[in-house]
Amino acid sequence: MSTFATLTNHQIRLAARPVGTPTRANWQSTTEPVAQPPEGGVLLKTLALSLDPAMRGWMNDAKSYIPPVGIGEVMRAGGVGVVMASNTPDYCVGDHVSAGFGVQEYLALAPLDFKRSGLVKIDLNVGTLTQWLNVLGMPGMTGYFGLMDVGQPQAGETVVVSGAAGAVGQTVGQLAKIKGCRVVGIAGGPAKCEWVVKELGFDACIDYKAGPGAVRAGLKEHCPKGVDIYFDNVGGEILDDVLARINRKARIIICGAISQYNTTTAVQGPKNYLSLLVNRARMEGIVVFDYADRYHLAVAEMAGYLKDGRMKSKEDVVQGLETFPEALVKLFTGENFGKLVLQVASE
Ligand SMILES: NC(=O)c1ccc[n+]([C@@H]2O[C@H](COP(=O)([O-])OP(=O)(O)OC[C@H]3O[C@@H](n4cnc5c(N)ncnc54)[C@H](OP(=O)(O)O)[C@@H]3O)[C@@H](O)[C@H]2O)c1
Question: Is the same domain home to 149 and 282?
């Protein structure tokens, strides 16, 4: 036990709520001694953290599906790590786990906090550490349940997904292909679009940065039979462009609206919403945590696709806890290529 007292836990805390895009001034670096594992609990070492667009929302003092991070609190973050010490037979030293680690190097959890923090063992024979933050982790679960439960894809239908080269988007597009759909991605820049088509097997990908009207023209060209499912990760004008091309009984999955997360004015809502009326279509939001009881089923299915090569998982790994403030912003500039992961330590 005494060995842990000599270790230091580096942390990143929320120092101030941002206006617009977060900067280093919104964060504070702190240190404290590593805590002992509580009675019946565990001490975990963070290996890698998931950097998510949702983090921007958690920095706001606003009502949401989860309370905001308080000023002075360790920033909330999901991650993967390893058990360093255990006072329960349920977890052994050396077990790999996924949990809500927070942006810090160590986490001591009492048994009462196991469920709240989403503590579960992960099997590195099924997927790598970073795949457990991507296709087999929260973004993969979002893509899976958003597409399958809300979208309910039928073979032959046309599925459009924005943020196509990102974490959620790559799962959605590949899964929709596996389910027999025509899949058109929307992503920023030729490199991402080429990867989505050549590596992931999408039927086409529209570069929304190619110029004014690029999305509208691309949808016309690549969705000649209209759009049956739109998996929306970005909101804004792209949502309006897709709404203009939906089919009767289309399903629009509102997963996120990253184009709006740093806005300092009112969020831009859809102007073309009457297309839902005309087409008897529906638009439905999804929060991944609602499906926690069924994650294991989706993981089993997707692990099968990873194994047989029908699904690929691309992660963009940034090094070092201290780079967190700058790394997070990459999500909003589109600098991440694949699931953005912050590597905090090696085993
Ligand atoms: N509802 C839920 O439960 C849930 C769970 C997880 C994620 N989400 C949402 O799903 C979406 C994708 O998350 P992710 O983790 O997979 O992130 P990601 O796609 O891996 O990364 C974010 C990407 O968004 C794109 N982007 C940034 N600003 C944009 C803009 N103004 N217009 C269009 N695209 C923009 C960038 O790609 P380009 O280079 O292509 O622009 C960037 O790489 C987010 O909206 C997130 O909030 C929701």
Answer: yes
Q: How far is residue 53 CA from its own chain's centroid?
A: 7
Residues 253-265, mean pLDDT to the nearest whole number: 97
For residue 53, the CA-to-ligand 1 centroid distance in Å is 6
Q: Is the alpha carbon torsion for 290, 296, 299, 300 positive or negative?
A: negative
Rounded to two decimals, the pTM is 0.97
Q: How far is the CA of 187 from the centre of ligand 1 (A)?
A: 10
Cβ-based neighbour number of residue 294 at 10 Å: 14
Q: Taking the alpha carbons of 101, 104, 337, 232 in that order, is the dihedral positive or negative?
A: positive
- 82: Cβ contacts below 8 Å, ≥ 6 apart: 44, 45, 47, 94, 95, 96, 97, 347
| Of 258, 287, 331, 335, best ligand 1 pocket probe by most atoms within 8 Å of the beta carbon | 258
pLDDT (tens digit, 9 = 90+) per residue, 178-216?
999 999 999 999 999 999 999 999 999 999 999 999 999
**Do 123 and 11 reside in the same domain of the chain?**
yes
Per the structure, the complete domain to which residue 337 belongs is given by 2-134+314-343
Do 247 and 260 have their domain in common?
yes
Of 3-7, 154-158, 264-268, the range with the lowest mean pLDDT is 3-7
The protein residue with its alpha carbon nearest to ligand 1, atom 42, reads 334
Q: What is the CATH number of the domain that holds 283?
A: 3.40.50.720
Rounded to 10 deg, the angle between the 236-243 and 214-222 helix axes is: 40
Helix axes 138-145, 167-178, angle to 10 degrees: 40
Q: Are 273 and 161 in the same domain?
A: yes
Digit-coded pLDDT (tens) for 217-241? 999 999 999 999 999 999 999 999 9
Which residues does ligand 1 sit against, CB inside 6 Å? 52-54, 139, 142, 163, 165-169, 187-188, 192, 233-234, 255-259, 286-288, 331-332, 334, 336, 339-340
d(CA 332, CA 165) in angstroms, rounded, equals 14
